[in-house]
Fold this sequence. Notes:
The structure holds 2 protein chains of 2 kinds. By secondary structure, chain A is an all-beta fold. Chain A has no helices and 10 strands. Chain A has one domain: Rieske [2Fe-2S] iron-sulphur domain (Rieske Iron-sulfur Protein, 3-layer Sandwich), CATH 2.102.10. In chain A, the strands form 3 sheets. A 4-stranded antiparallel β-sheet of chain A has the order 2-3-4-8, with no helix packed on it. Chain B has 5 domains: 167 residues, FAD/NAD(P)-binding domain; 125 residues, FAD/NAD(P)-binding domain (3-Layer(bba) Sandwich); 57 residues, no CATH class; 82 residues, Sulfite Reductase Hemoprotein,Domain 2 (Sulfite Reductase Hemoprotein, domain 2, Alpha-Beta Complex), CATH 3.90.480.10; 155 residues, Sulfite Reductase Hemoprotein, domain 1 (2-Layer Sandwich). In chain B, strand 1, helix 1 and strand 2 form a beta-alpha-beta unit. At the A-B interface, strand 1, strand 2 and strand 5 of A face helix 18 and strand 40 of B. Strand 2 of chain A pairs parallel with strand 40 of chain B.
Amino acid sequence: xxxxxxxxxxxxxxxxxxxxxxxxxxxxxxxxxxxxxxxxxxxxxxxxxxxxxxxxxxxxxxxxxxxxxxxxxxxxxxxxxxxxxxxxxxxxxxxxxxxxxxxxxxxxxxxxxxx
Amino acid sequence: xxxxxxxxxxxxxxxxxxxxxxxxxxxxxxxxxxxxxxxxxxxxxxxxxxxxxxxxxxxxxxxxxxxxxxxxxxxxxxxxxxxxxxxxxxxxxxxxxxxxxxxxxxxxxxxxxxxxxxxxxxxxxxxxxxxxxxxxxxxxxxxxxxxxxxxxxxxxxxxxxxxxxxxxxxxxxxxxxxxxxxxxxxxxxxxxxxxxxxxxxxxxxxxxxxxxxxxxxxxxxxxxxxxxxxxxxxxxxxxxxxxxxxxxxxxxxxxxxxxxxxxxxxxxxxxxxxxxxxxxxxxxxxxxxxxxxxxxxxxxxxxxxxxxxxxxxxxxxxxxxxxxxxxxxxxxxxxxxxxxxxxxxxxxxxxxxxxxxxxxxxxxxxxxxxxxxxxxxxxxxxxxxxxxxxxxxxxxxxxxxxxxxxxxxxxxxxxxxxxxxxxxxxxxxxxxxxxxxxxxxxxxxxxxxxxxxxxxxxxxxxxxxxxxxxxxxxxxxxxxxxxxxxxxxxxxxxxxxxxxxxxxxxxxxxxxxxxxxxxxxxxxxxxxxxxxxxxxxxxxxxxxxxxxxxxxxxxxxxxxxxxxxxxxxxxxxxxxxxxxxxxxxxxxxxxxxxxxxxxxxxxxxxxxxxxxxxxxxxxxxxxxxxxxxxxxxxxxxxxxxxxxxxxxxxxxxxxxxxxxxxxxxxxxxxxxxxxxxxxxxxxxxxxxxxxxxxxxxxxxxxxxxxxxxxxxxxxxxxxxxxxxxxxxxxxxxxxxxxxxxxxxxxxxxxxxxxxxxxxxxxxxxxxxxxxxxxxxxxxxxxxxxxxxxxxxxxxxxxxxxxxxxxxx
Lengths: 115, 808
């Protein structure tokens, strides 16, 4: 995470995203999915599966991964990489929880993600 | 000086005695007489020979070469006619031979019921290879076979003959099959499985005569019924073959009486096997015979040893009928039962306890844990600490993992694995360490699983545990990579251990991941809400997106919206509201579905609550076109308009849809109601179909018209609409409670059997209870999810919109 700045944008309360679920953020570059895991970690990824652009925010979240609802590709929330035999990667963005609020790195507004 | 040993009978018991003697280099010159024209073979395996799974060559244990190598003088096909104890000689058709020690191993003779016609051609017994070959020959021309006797031998004969294409009927005198080994419930399951393979079973059937002039033609029963027969197999029992011993003046009761050293009343004459009686007991299974063989060999070598009868267990060697029984399971004062039934899988387990000790066990359908239970009986283990979970077997004791391999790994070295040959786990481990690294090698070295073969799986598990990574064990299909358990295992755990939350299942069933995956979570969510509708709260995050958002996701991430049209009936007002909604939300495609309603395709996810609200306001609710639950009830116009209609099919369809909607099922559930047998609603390719006839309603289930196409099978016919609704609710609930997630009704029925489903809904008590449980669940789930989600439309909108934020 060396590339990240100190410039964080407050997005919403953590509770606005269900555990093992996701919500969308609209940006000028397209939709970003904010995921919350079963143990309240948050991750931000482009909302498009590397396979056929499936809406990852609509997938089932398990552990630190999400399964795309269209064709069951499993994507790592940490790296954005497709798991198992599938290959491909989704852009990820730094995200964190501070005092019960979700914050996303402002770089999200200016350029594509770190991955 | 070398002594002369004469052996009468070359069966499994005497064969084992000779092996022990030669292994110990005992100083005997052996002469062997056998009435059968061959040496020793594995008599237990005659059933696989009969069914065609094995040949005689596969089951020979001692061939001519073996006898020659060991210096045995053999007289095969030469019966002994008399014993002269004073002169210490035996006389056969070929002459007289002297002995120092005589071993009587004459085995047993089949019991022939004394009815007219018992000597006709085509009446055979089932005892040796000649009998088996006679049956195989008879089966070549097909025809009908009647097997008299529903015990072990009779059923194995019946299964073998059926396998060879004969039309087989089993006659059994008692009320249920194998009554000495099984209780009624297990006897019933066995009967059902045999009937499934086309064998007719008649209990309480007493044979009066066998009819025919030169050959058998029929069997006459005492109730006057006549059964045609081209072959009759008598398998009603055996009696010890004691004629020689009786003639020689030895002490004979039911069998030749022996002491614990296996000596008869004449100490120079020893007896073994099925012909002996010890302490009032007769012996018909191989395991005690092998124990006797050890003692006989010791006695012959002058080494003291004592024969002690052990607890015995029984398994039936009919492929597909897994049963096990051991100990004493008769009901008696002070005895208690623990019973477990899983009708869906045809599993029955019963343990009989007395003073916290298991004294008997009967298992049917799943005998994987039989050795463990047998160990409890044999060792008289105090089970008070594990009583509550005892019936579930070793995997559920002491928090041990449920992996069967771990259970095997945990067994002590002295646990007997192969009951026939008395081989313990330790001996198998030693053999593996000495280089026997596959089943064949272990079998060759230790004889484990080499006799009846039912312990083969267990021997393989010991091999797997001992070899570790070098062994690749065939794995049963588990739900997914998160668990080793099957769907059936998990459903059973959820019910029996009252697991009411997902974390409880993960914990108790040893999930290997923190919170499951996209395969197991939807299944668990369904199992939990189906079994515990009040206690468990549905988890949207464990549902596929369609069921979470109550709409069908399309390939571009948009959704389709299908409002319900009860029974396919709509109104101009509803159609206007649908048209208005399509305009307002710029719906690109409007399509009429096969389920008699209208699909609005291409709605954006964030617009869903708004379009639902409009449709709700026009009186419409979700059509659940996306759910593993009730989809549609397709109807024809019935008596309202049609000149052929016999009943109000439309009205019944609407009633059914209004009572079933909102219910979750293992897979989607589609119904059809046709007003007459012309079947315009195509009811006979639905999961549940109703065809109206003049006299009432024909209900059938298990149709499909997707990847598989199949016609429904009749479930029952009823007279009133109210009965139709009751039956449909009951069968739906049965399906909800028992099926594997994502099995349509036809797949489920193929697993549990239509007969069981029929019985369950035909039994009025069961039907009422199923219906009540369905209704109970519907009090929670018969609600419009669209209306509920309109109230939380916030969650359908983006969390934040940063498109207008200035970029730095």
